[in-house]
Fold this protein.
Amino acid sequence: MIAHVRGTVHSVTLSSAVLEVGGLGYEVLCTPDTLAGLRVGEEALLATSFVVREDSMTLFGFRDADEKSCFQVLQTASGVGPKLAQAVLAVMSPDALRQAIHADDAKALTKVPGIGAKGAAKIVIELKDRIGHPHGTVTSGGPTVTVVTWREQVVEGLVGLGYSAKDAEKAADGVAATLGDNPDVGVALRAALQHLSRG
């Protein structure tokens, strides 16, 4: 595995950069934000992830280990490959991604090309326990977290996954008694999905 690449920036395009290391040029696919920090002729150090497929070998580059870690965690979600994971990080910083997932804000993920409402809701559910907590300061008391009840968020998540509002509300009501007054939304959503699968 190629964990990082340090070398002189030979060229920069809209989607990649070439770093020259010991006479070899390594093409590294990067987000626009990472590319914006590179200057031709200057030395750069990029954390990297080497992705091998049957028909390709691709080196993805990141400005730091945190961005690389989020890239790798994103790919553990169903239907998320390396290109889609990079697209997410092109739209959202690692902390913005963590905040969206912990606030069950699937709508924020739909801003990424290639992710619809259903896919965004699945990513939020699957990564809730894997993505880690935001590193920056998160203001408390915001309306998104405090005003919307867990039940409303569960219903919205189920509708985003393709269920009717009526079925989503029934499922939320069906699991409410077993979850307590203020359950974790991710836990509640998983319970509601299990309730629906049982018919």
Summary: The chain has three domains: 4-62, 65-127, 148-197. The longest helix spans residues 165-179. Confidence is low (pLDDT under 50) at residues 137-148.
